[in-house]
Amino acid sequence: MLKKESLHGMWGSRWVFIMAATGSAVGLGNIWKFPYITGENGGGAFVLVYLICIALIGLPLMMAEVLIGRRGRQSPVNSLRDVAEESGQPKAWQAVGLLGALAGFLIFGFYSVVGGWVFSYVSEMAQGSFNGAGADQVGDAFSGMLADPKRMLIWHSIFAFASMVVLVRGVNDGLERAIRILMPALFILLLVVFGYAFSTGHMGEAFHFMFDFSPEKLTANAVLVALGHAFFTLSLGMGTMIAYGSYMTKKASIGSTALTVVVLDTLVALVAGLAIFPIVFANNMDPGAGPGLMFVTLPVAFGNMPMGQIFGFLFFVLVGIAAWTSALSLMEPSIAFVVERFNIKRPLACLVLGLAGWLLGIAALLSFNVWSDVHLLMGKGIFDTLDYVTANIMLPLGGLLIAIFAGYVMLRRFTQEELSLSEGQYQAWRITVRYIAPVLVVIVLVNQLFFS
Ligand code: PHE
Hints:
- With 452 residues, the chain is an all-alpha fold.
- It has helices at 14-25, 28-40, 44-72, 76-86, 94-127, 135-146, 149-168, 170-198, 203-211, 220-233, 240-245, 254-282, 292-303, 308-342, 346-366, 382-409, 412-419, 423-451.
- It has a single domain, classed as Amino acid/polyamine transporter I, CATH 1.20.1740.
- Phenylalanine binds at residues 24-25, 27-30, 104, 107, 232-233, 235, 238, 240, 326, 329-330.
């Protein structure tokens, strides 16, 4: 009853899966969010908790998603349905896939807006707009952009269009081809920017900031942020890895493949931090500047450093590529689902979902200006509500349900067959998805919902 191949296509090799999954995982979360939440939460202590969350929850959950996808060989919705049925469980488990596809679509809405900011900074850097600029000037430029819906609309549209152009061509001609070029480019650019940061002579300071463990800085909130971020940065809890796993060959080992992706994603986040903080410190700026770290602090720094324009330009190209390959994976679950459910061609599914995602992005970008009075949840605007509801509620909830699915719903022999680990490794995996991950996620969710 289970399928051998996905109707959407199959990755050319195990490496293509690794690059695609890494492309999904490495995104704004690594280069924009991770450094600034590290800065806000005091550095070292936060990084340690983040690493623990990645190892304890991230890796086992990524394995769970990939195995469900590879077994089901369809969109997350239908994979969950068939894999549940195979174990004699209700089809209703497909609802978890729907929740995930919806989350991906909602994230795409605001992700594309931020991706648009990044693209616009690429163009500003190319023109040298920040050369010699002071913090006030760049700060004003950033708020000026937020206040200008037309400008944001243009860049958001370019970003959304760039994503759909790749997606419409399918798994092999679209995703695989783009990823084969973009991922090596991403790693090269990261090394170049890292080398530049090294040349500032402030690497030591950055290193201390990120890795000195000072327990007094560890707050309960920092732990929550770290766990939530572990989901976001690894693209977990919404079925991305189920979709990408459904295109993976039977031969590849899920454990070592997932481990490679997790390690690469974590390395990129750490190296991004080690590329950004020296530049911040070299200019005597504040590492705790929050979301403005990348859009205000860094451009000021680049604008006042030797060869800053060119390296600043390369830096934003790097961030743009990272955001782009992640955006692709945000839409893949819903596109695959719509193609299967309504039996339509991929281009039509892309058109409909792409337009809808683009409109959602417009609502999100208007919330910075024209619609700034519209408050949805807890006084948050549209953009912030989308961010909060997806990253802090939908992804952890999706992750919890997927852990329960892999740990309790699927028959043991099926997960064992799919993972083909040694008995000890399998036991360790099973204990984490059955006990450790669910308990930790419930703690985080309850805290999110009732105490924040
Ligand atoms: N992991 C991506 C990032 O770090 C975001 C993402 C989340 C992508 C969920 C796909 C699915 O930016």
